[in-house]
Write a structure and sequence with these properties.
CATH architecture: 2-Layer Sandwich
Mean pLDDT: 95
Structural class: alpha+beta
Strand order of the largest sheet: 1-4
Low-confidence stretches: none
Shape: globular
Number of strands: 4
Number of domains: 1
Bound molecules: FE3-S4 cluster
Strand content: 15-25%
Amino acid sequence: ALIIKSECIDVKDGICTTSCPVDCIYEGERMFYIHPEECIECGMCESICPVDAIRYYDEVTGADRAFIEINKDVFQGP
Ligand code: F3S
């Protein structure tokens, strides 16, 4: 899947939601999140984000890898 990284925090441009053919990008309080099971990995959102916040999991390095778990947790029940 793809994830949204720290660049989205408090930016929340939102244009990525219009690029997603399966509507799997959801608004959170300070950033948007991609539902890991609904994402079809088309990559349409990756190039459209003005702050370059979206990447495929395997392209995420360093501290940004924490966002893979953060994204997952957002869609998990208690
Ligand atoms: Fe955030 Fe970029 Fe989407 S700033 S809301 S990931 S277009």
